Amino acid sequence: MTVEELLKLDSSEIVRRRYNLATEMSLYDAALEKLRETKKIHRKSSDIEWKDHALDQSMNLRIKTASVIAPELGFSIYSMRAFIGELPPKSSEGAYHRHGEAIKYYLSGRAVEIVGEEEYEVGAGDFVFIPANIWHGTQNPYDEPVRFIAVAQPPDVGTRIPTLYMRKESE
User: Fold this and answer.
1) No. of H helices and E strands in the chain?
2) Is 0.85 topped by the overall pTM?
3) CB of 148 within 8 A of CB of 130?
4) Strand runs (DSSP E) across the chain, as ranges?
5) How many CB atoms lie within 10 A of CB 65?
6) Is 63 helix (H, G, I), strand (E, B) or coil?
7) Whole-angstrom Cα distance, residue 5 to residue 131?
8) pLDDT in tens, 9-32
9) What angle do CA 21, 65, 29 make, to 5 degrees?
10) Running DSSP on this structure, what letter comes out for residue 75?
11) Which of 169, 91, 104, 168 is nearest to 136 (CA)?
Protein backbone atom coordinates (compact mmCIF):
# COMPACT_ATOMS: atom_id res chain seq x y z
CA MET A 1 0.00 0.00 0.00
CA THR A 2 1.25 3.47 -0.84
CA VAL A 3 1.06 6.64 1.25
CA GLU A 4 -1.48 8.02 -1.24
CA GLU A 5 -3.70 4.96 -0.75
CA LEU A 6 -3.43 5.25 3.03
CA LEU A 7 -4.43 8.92 2.91
CA LYS A 8 -7.72 7.92 1.25
CA LEU A 9 -8.65 5.98 4.40
CA ASP A 10 -10.45 7.46 7.38
CA SER A 11 -7.86 8.69 9.92
CA SER A 12 -9.19 6.31 12.60
CA GLU A 13 -8.66 3.42 10.17
CA ILE A 14 -5.04 4.51 9.67
CA VAL A 15 -4.53 4.57 13.44
CA ARG A 16 -6.23 1.16 13.85
CA ARG A 17 -4.04 -0.44 11.16
CA ARG A 18 -0.89 1.11 12.64
CA TYR A 19 -1.81 -0.19 16.09
CA ASN A 20 -2.38 -3.71 14.72
CA LEU A 21 0.92 -3.58 12.84
CA ALA A 22 2.76 -2.37 15.96
CA THR A 23 1.21 -5.22 17.95
CA GLU A 24 2.35 -7.74 15.34
CA MET A 25 5.83 -6.18 15.24
CA SER A 26 6.04 -6.64 19.01
CA LEU A 27 5.65 -10.38 18.50
CA TYR A 28 8.54 -10.39 16.00
CA ASP A 29 10.63 -8.30 18.39
CA ALA A 30 9.90 -10.75 21.22
CA ALA A 31 10.97 -13.67 19.01
CA LEU A 32 14.22 -11.89 18.06
CA GLU A 33 14.82 -11.13 21.72
CA LYS A 34 14.55 -14.87 22.50
CA LEU A 35 17.06 -15.63 19.73
CA ARG A 36 19.44 -12.98 21.11
CA GLU A 37 19.49 -14.84 24.45
CA THR A 38 21.94 -17.32 22.87
CA LYS A 39 24.49 -14.47 23.10
CA LYS A 40 26.57 -15.85 20.27
CA ILE A 41 29.99 -14.22 19.80
CA HIS A 42 31.68 -16.23 17.03
CA ARG A 43 30.56 -17.63 13.67
CA LYS A 44 32.59 -20.13 11.70
CA SER A 45 32.83 -19.67 7.95
CA SER A 46 31.53 -23.23 7.51
CA ASP A 47 28.23 -22.14 9.13
CA ILE A 48 27.59 -19.34 6.63
CA GLU A 49 24.73 -20.02 4.21
CA TRP A 50 24.41 -18.11 0.93
CA LYS A 51 20.86 -17.27 -0.18
CA ASP A 52 19.17 -15.26 -2.86
CA HIS A 53 18.43 -11.92 -1.21
CA ALA A 54 14.99 -12.19 0.32
CA LEU A 55 14.53 -9.29 2.75
CA ASP A 56 12.46 -7.29 0.26
CA GLN A 57 10.66 -9.54 -2.23
CA SER A 58 9.42 -6.52 -4.21
CA MET A 59 12.99 -5.56 -5.21
CA ASN A 60 13.52 -8.64 -7.45
CA LEU A 61 17.21 -8.69 -6.61
CA ARG A 62 19.85 -10.75 -8.37
CA ILE A 63 22.17 -10.42 -5.40
CA LYS A 64 23.18 -13.31 -3.16
CA THR A 65 23.72 -12.60 0.53
CA ALA A 66 24.88 -14.41 3.62
CA SER A 67 24.02 -13.01 7.04
CA VAL A 68 27.04 -13.31 9.28
CA ILE A 69 26.19 -11.28 12.42
CA ALA A 70 22.50 -10.65 13.14
CA PRO A 71 19.96 -11.14 15.94
CA GLU A 72 18.20 -13.98 14.11
CA LEU A 73 21.50 -15.89 14.25
CA GLY A 74 21.68 -15.66 18.03
CA PHE A 75 23.88 -12.56 18.36
CA SER A 76 22.78 -10.07 21.03
CA ILE A 77 23.07 -7.18 18.59
CA TYR A 78 20.64 -4.29 18.16
CA SER A 79 22.12 -1.39 16.21
CA MET A 80 23.60 -3.13 13.15
CA ARG A 81 23.85 -6.34 11.16
CA ALA A 82 26.62 -7.68 8.98
CA PHE A 83 26.29 -9.61 5.76
CA ILE A 84 28.30 -10.64 2.71
CA GLY A 85 26.89 -9.81 -0.71
CA GLU A 86 27.73 -10.97 -4.20
CA LEU A 87 26.39 -9.32 -7.34
CA PRO A 88 26.81 -11.20 -10.62
CA PRO A 89 28.43 -9.67 -13.71
CA LYS A 90 26.36 -7.29 -15.83
CA SER A 91 23.67 -6.78 -13.18
CA SER A 92 22.33 -4.39 -10.56
CA GLU A 93 20.58 -4.85 -7.25
CA GLY A 94 17.32 -4.35 -9.11
CA ALA A 95 15.99 -1.37 -7.14
CA TYR A 96 17.39 1.50 -5.18
CA HIS A 97 16.60 1.48 -1.52
CA ARG A 98 17.32 3.29 1.71
CA HIS A 99 17.72 2.32 5.36
CA GLY A 100 19.98 3.25 8.26
CA GLU A 101 23.70 3.94 7.99
CA ALA A 102 25.85 1.35 6.24
CA ILE A 103 29.48 0.67 5.47
CA LYS A 104 30.51 -1.53 2.57
CA TYR A 105 33.94 -3.07 2.08
CA TYR A 106 34.64 -4.58 -1.33
CA LEU A 107 36.40 -7.95 -1.20
CA SER A 108 36.74 -8.67 -4.93
CA GLY A 109 35.59 -7.47 -8.33
CA ARG A 110 34.49 -3.98 -9.33
CA ALA A 111 31.18 -2.12 -9.24
CA VAL A 112 29.51 1.26 -9.38
CA GLU A 113 28.02 2.30 -6.06
CA ILE A 114 25.36 4.99 -6.37
CA VAL A 115 24.83 7.03 -3.20
CA GLY A 116 22.30 9.81 -3.56
CA GLU A 117 23.11 11.57 -6.83
CA GLU A 118 26.78 10.51 -6.90
CA GLU A 119 28.35 7.48 -8.58
CA TYR A 120 31.54 5.89 -7.25
CA GLU A 121 33.72 3.36 -9.06
CA VAL A 122 34.66 0.80 -6.42
CA GLY A 123 36.93 -2.23 -6.33
CA ALA A 124 38.64 -4.67 -3.98
CA GLY A 125 39.93 -2.91 -0.86
CA ASP A 126 37.61 0.12 -1.18
CA PHE A 127 35.13 1.28 1.46
CA VAL A 128 31.89 3.22 0.97
CA PHE A 129 29.85 4.91 3.68
CA ILE A 130 26.13 5.20 3.02
CA PRO A 131 24.40 7.81 5.22
CA ALA A 132 21.02 6.97 6.77
CA ASN A 133 17.93 7.46 4.62
CA ILE A 134 19.89 8.11 1.42
CA TRP A 135 18.77 6.33 -1.74
CA HIS A 136 21.53 4.01 -2.94
CA GLY A 137 22.26 0.88 -4.93
CA THR A 138 25.01 -1.12 -6.56
CA GLN A 139 25.52 -1.81 -10.27
CA ASN A 140 27.98 -4.29 -11.70
CA PRO A 141 28.52 -3.48 -15.39
CA TYR A 142 31.72 -5.57 -15.44
CA ASP A 143 32.50 -9.13 -16.53
CA GLU A 144 33.29 -10.52 -13.08
CA PRO A 145 31.18 -10.75 -9.92
CA VAL A 146 31.67 -8.23 -7.13
CA ARG A 147 31.72 -9.40 -3.52
CA PHE A 148 31.47 -7.16 -0.47
CA ILE A 149 30.90 -7.14 3.27
CA ALA A 150 28.27 -4.71 4.53
CA VAL A 151 27.55 -3.58 8.06
CA ALA A 152 24.20 -1.84 8.12
CA GLN A 153 21.85 -0.26 10.60
CA PRO A 154 18.43 -1.91 10.23
CA PRO A 155 15.62 0.48 9.25
CA ASP A 156 13.86 0.15 12.61
CA VAL A 157 16.85 1.32 14.69
CA GLY A 158 16.20 4.91 15.63
CA THR A 159 17.93 5.38 18.93
CA ARG A 160 21.54 6.19 19.58
CA ILE A 161 23.09 4.25 22.43
CA PRO A 162 25.98 6.19 23.97
CA THR A 163 29.01 4.04 24.66
CA LEU A 164 32.14 4.96 26.53
CA TYR A 165 35.64 3.88 25.63
CA MET A 166 37.54 2.91 28.76
CA ARG A 167 40.61 0.86 29.48
CA LYS A 168 40.54 -1.55 32.37
CA GLU A 169 43.21 -0.75 34.91
CA SER A 170 45.72 -3.48 35.71
CA GLU A 171 45.18 -5.03 39.08
Assistant:
1) 2, 10
2) no
3) no
4) 51-52, 64-69, 81-87, 91-92, 102-108, 110-115, 118-123, 127-130, 136-140, 146-152
5) 19
6) coil
7) 29
8) 999 999 999 999 989 988 988 998
9) 25
10) B
11) 104
